[in-house]
Design brief:
The chain is α/β, with parallel strands linked by helices. It has one domain. It has nine helices and 14 strands. The chain has a six-stranded mixed β-sheet with strand order 4-3-2-5-7-6, with helices on both faces. Helix 3 packs parallel to helix 8. The longest helix has 19 residues.
Length: about 350
Amino acid sequence: MSWLFVNLLATSLNIPFLSFLRSAIDGSTFGLSYNGEEIMTEPVAVSLIWFGTGWQEPGKKAVRNAITSLTPSSYNSKHSEVPNLGDWRGVVRQYRESSNAQVSDKVDVGAECFFTGPELNMTLDHVVQISQTVFNKTAIENFSRNLKCNCVFEVHENQIYQILVSHTVKFIYGQKQRQLMDLCSSKFQLHVVAGMIVNKAWVREPQNHDDHFSISFSSSYYVGSPNGDEKIDTLAGNMLVQIAEEVTYRDGRGWISNDGNGLTISSSCFPPFLNAKDGPPLYANEERNISFNAVGLNGNRYIVLHIWNQKIKNCALAPAEICGSDAVVLKHPRGVLKGGRNCCESY
């Protein structure tokens, strides 16, 4: 069960299901268990297909920067009060495979392709066709002038293939397009070169105010989008979750909750905030009128989902020391950025 699926249910107000999720992580016995699938322990490249004409250069830079900001060694400061995306990645890196190798500490942007063709009445078949085309140089050249790539996509076990859908893309109404219309993101499997099968993760920008793609943007602590574009910032946050999921739970195995409910490192951390009166905690820069809970490189700020920290048995934005047998209780932030916070203090 993915965070994205849970998010859709939340916006549909499926109260019995939400109550089930709230109880799913109660108690100190909850945790994630390894189920045998290989995780990404080598440097990861995230290849991107940009669908649509609605992208602006600052937004594209913010998305690329979010990916490169996941590499912990990119940061000079080790004592920032606000978690950075390298810290967030540090929580993901505590997960290991059977050989005891941990998730890679290096993430970068891979090949990129841009589809700027017709945006109305888009279909799943069209998305699949373009997603297959990018793996073949001749197919790219023969496709149309509407598809441009800086490199041909390669099939590799340490590649993540990410589709980004602009708010300007409109899918034709139909059962095959239901997920693309109803969900904020998901993934599908794709046959590519020589019969190889890869996962294609996709995430789309919200198209209107009814697209509730992140509970953080409904938080009472939210005062403004961290990079000045709520659509981009929502997409970037959900994309980062997909990257975390892909390296730890790639093909329906990997790290999954030990209670049989199918929760992952991200979906485990949605239920706690359903009980929070004011929503997920956020930092605020009152001068710039923005909210965020993590910083990236080059001055960018982001809103990301808390992920399950196996060591403290709770949700976190950064690694923490073990604080004893009791899990940390998630509460609202203190609202100011001064002084330290030890591992036993609440968010």
